[in-house]
Every structure is written in structure tokens, then in C-alpha cells.
Amino acid sequence: MKKLKEFEPPKHLLQFDSMDELHQEFLEVYNSVDIHDINSVKEKLTILLVHSKKHFAHEEALMDEFGYLTHKEHKDEHNKVLAEMQYFLNLAQSSFGQKMLKAYYKEKLPSWFDLHLISMDSDLVHFLNTKNKVS
Ligand SMILES: [Fe+2]
Ligand SMILES: [Fe+2]
Questions:
Q1: How far out from the chain centre does Cα 112 lie?
Q2: Could you read off the pLDDT of 96-110 as tens digits, one per residue?
Q3: Domain 14-28+38-130 belongs to what topology?
Q4: For residue 3, what pLDDT is reported?
Q5: Are 30 and 5 in contact, with CB atoms under 8 Å apart?
Q6: What's the CA-to-centroid distance between 66 and ligand 2, angstroms?
Q7: Residues of the chain scoring pLDDT < 70
Q8: Which of 15, 27, 88, 16 minimizes the C-alpha distance to 52?
Q9: Coil/strand/helix, residue 39
Q10: What does the alpha-carbon distance between residue 115 and residue 53 come to, in Å, rounded to a whole number?
Q11: What sign has the CA pseudo-torsion 82, 56, 54, 44?
């Protein structure tokens, strides 16, 4: 079966091991969905929500430990996507909501992931590397 989202090393590997591992795990769960089965979409998004809480808490602990200046913007972005995931899961009670959930999973979540990695997470890694933080 073709993967919904290919792993693209230049874009998805930021050269910081602990974060790279979390991002790879995210894509593995994301790709394990059967997009034609709404129960599978709900199940995978629920797992991704739990995984993202762990993933974001790890990044936020690094920000706090090393005094990352734009931590508020980055944390706000994390909270926004967690709220969004929960919103679409809640919406999936109706058939309209299920369509919205599927579209969110297929289109918006993966583009959010790419954008977040190439902007905020890359910036955080760059900062950590200047601090000589070992990943
Ligand atoms: Fe991340
Ligand atoms: Fe992040």
C-alpha cells in the first residue's frame, strides 16, 4: 500500500537525534492508517494526539532548559495543533464531522507537520546546536 506521506530525510531529519526519533515515530503512526476506514482514522489520530503531547513536552523541556527565546510562539503552536486534533476527533460524531476529520487527516495535518519542522523545529535545533547541546 502506498504511504500517505513519504519520509523525506532532508526535510524530516533535523540532525538532532531525540527530536528526529519523535518525528519519525509520528510519520510511522500517521502512515499506518487505512484512510478509507473512519474508525482507523479516529484511532490513529487519537494515538497521534497522545504521541504529540509527549513529543511537544520533550521539545518544550529543551526550550526551558536552554533558555530558548521564542519559546512562547513555539509552545503556542504546539497547543494550537493539540486543540485542533481534539476538535476534529470530537467533531467525528456526525457523518459531516467524519468527512471533516478525514480531510484534516489527509491534507492539513501533514502540511502542518512539514511547515512546523522546516520552520519552528529547525530553528530550535539550530539554537540547541549553538549551545552545543548533545541530542
Ligand atoms: Fe517536533
Ligand atoms: Fe515543535
A1: 8
A2: 999 999 999 999 999
A3: Four Helix Bundle (Hemerythrin (Met), subunit A) (1.20.120)
A4: 85
A5: yes
A6: 15
A7: 1, 133-135
A8: 27
A9: helix
A10: 18
A11: positive
Q: How many angstroms separate the CA atoms of 128 and 121, rounded?
A: 10
Q: Report how far ligand 1's centroid is from the alpha carbon of 71 (Å).
A: 13
Which ligand lies nearest the alpha carbon of 24? 1
Instruction: Kindly list the protein residues that place their beta carbon closer than 5 angstroms to ligand 2, a single-atom ion.
Output: 59, 121
Any idea where the domains of the chain sit in the sequence? 14-28+38-130
Map grid coordinates 500517505 to a residue: 4
Q: In the chain, what is the greatest distance between 2 CA atoms, to the nearest angstrom?
A: 50
pTM for the model stands at: 0.94
Helix/strand/coil (H/E/C) assignment for every residue in 47-101: HHHHHHHHHHHHHHHHHHHHCCCCHHHHHHHHHHHHHHHHHHHHHCCCHHHHHHH
CA 6–ligand 2 middle distance (angstroms): 20
